[in-house]
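Render this sequence as a predicted structure.
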Amino acid sequence: MLKDSVYAASAIETLQKEEGLEGVQIAMDLNVSPQLVSNIKHGHRKLQKDIAKSAMTTYDSPEFIMQLLYEFSEGYTAPVANGKVIDPHRLSFEEMTIKQVKEVIQILDEVSLAKPPNETTKEEKVRIEQVINELLDADMFINNLLAVLAKEYGFSLRKCKRNRVPYWKSKGWI
C-alpha cells in the first residue's frame, strides 16, 4: 500500500540538482504553487501522492524517482545509496554491485531451497533469511548502478525498462 503523502525534501533537492531546476519551474511543471514546492523542499509540508505521480511522469530522473518510490512504498523498493561511506561514482557502484552479486551467488550455492517451506528446520530458515538479506543488498546496488549509469550516460531509465518488456514477455518471464 502506498502512503498518501511523504516528506520529500531530499527528493526535491535531488531533482533540482540533477535537472538544474528552480522551485518556480518545478511549480509550473507540476501545476502547483511555488510556495508549496518551497514548503516541501524545506520539510514544512508533505508531498501528496498525486503530485508525486505527476512529478515522476514529468521528470525522468532515476535518483529522484527512486527516492520517491522508497518513501511512498514505506521502504519496499531500493533506497538511494548515499550514505557517508558511499562514493557515488559509477566505478564504485560497479565494484559494490559485483561484490554483492558474488555474495548472493555464494550463499545460493550453500543453501538449498529445494525443500518445501513447511518442511524447513529453524536453522534452514535462518540461512534462507540470510539469502533474502544478501539479495536485498544486491538489489540496492543494482538499482543504484542502473540510476548512475542512466544519468551519467544520458539514457532514460524509464525508456530502457519499457523497451525490455517485449523481450521479457518473449522469454515468458512476465
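Summary. The chain has eight helices and two strands. The beta strands are 5-6, 47-48.
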